[in-house]
User: Fold this.
Amino acid sequence: MFNCKGKTDEELVSLALGEADYFLCLMKRYEAKLLRYINRIANIRQEDAEDVLQDSFIKVYENLNNFDDKLKFSSWIYRIVHNQVISNFRKLKARPQQIDWDSENILNNLIADFNISREIDREYLSQKVAQVLEELDDKYQEVLILKYLEDKNYQEISDILKKPMGTIATLLSRAKQQFKKVVKDKKFNL
Amino acid sequence: MSDNNVSQDTLKKIKNKDIKPKPRWHFLLKDYVVWIFGFISLLVGSLSFSVVLYMLVNNDWDIYSQISNSLWQFILTTLPYFWLLFLLIFIGVAYYNFRHTKGGYKIAVHKLIAGSIIFSILFGSFLYKIGVAQTMDGLVIGNEYFYKKVINRRAGAWSQPDKGLLAGVLIYVEDEEHVTVKGLDGELWQVDVTEAELPLLPVEISMPLKIIGEVQGDNIFKAKAIFPMKGMRFMKDKGGPHSMLDIKRPLER
Assistant:
């Protein structure tokens, strides 16, 4: 095993261009995160998710010379995985699955950003929030997943989805509007 | 793959199948092609704008009331739609190319489109100023019918003697009252200029003219007003010494 400790992603990209084993370090760094990301956005079995990840890793390797060091490597690899998932959707005509929004950290962020009352019972709240989020359009879910589940900032989301930052801000703002509308339509007490 | 060790499996696959990173030049070439096509589209858009400007400047603004019912009708009839469409298409192509450059996604759609339009207007105005638009207009005349019907409908609009509009090149001055004009379709017209309002500029042989008046018989036209026809450079080719040789004798009445 090559020594990858202390090396940045960008340094590993340069090294992997000369020696494929360095690419293993990069894959190991992102394997768990990306597999979780694929599972969050794709309605496919675990094995299929792993296949998508492998295809994505191979694409990343083949395109290493195209890595733009003005980007964060994590944004670039998320973008490739995101595109691979979309192309996988097209092939399988699958739909995004029920997303697990139920986590204390995510819930706290959502409560703060979506003006939800903090007085409501946690279990009820997480259940209802999850239901509302499932009702949102895919394009809004996409940015919400990256912001609240993958903890990406506006710049990173812009680089992953290849959309201007202004558009990302608009999508998030519209996601909030749609969230409020669904809460109102479903007569949830949030 | 179910032992959850995607990374190891992927590395094995890379090695077994001898997968290599694509060379850097492959991506650079792709980037350059996108940029070059973007700039070519901008240049074509600018060229289109310069011809639009050329046609608008040389339109019949001075006599629009005599050939149209209203200013709006005149504008709608004589707008250079062909070149405007060309301009729009190439602004669209330029936008598409710049959007697909490496950092193109960071720029908002409206900023990219506004940038392409502003560039086309500025560079197009420069091309107009140095005379490129005039040359361009002359180059697309190949198919005269198409030119008059689609590219420059103003030329077609002036080829309607029955409606009192005649355009052509002065090829022969018979006497002080009669001249011969070769119309855009090549037909010869004897024009009675007795009561015509003449242009301030001296009228010379080979000069493109537009004439308002009425048909008085077979190829006989009585002029009420005669104007030089700007922006119809191609018409000069219709007159000139060779044409004059063809009609040395006065036209028969």
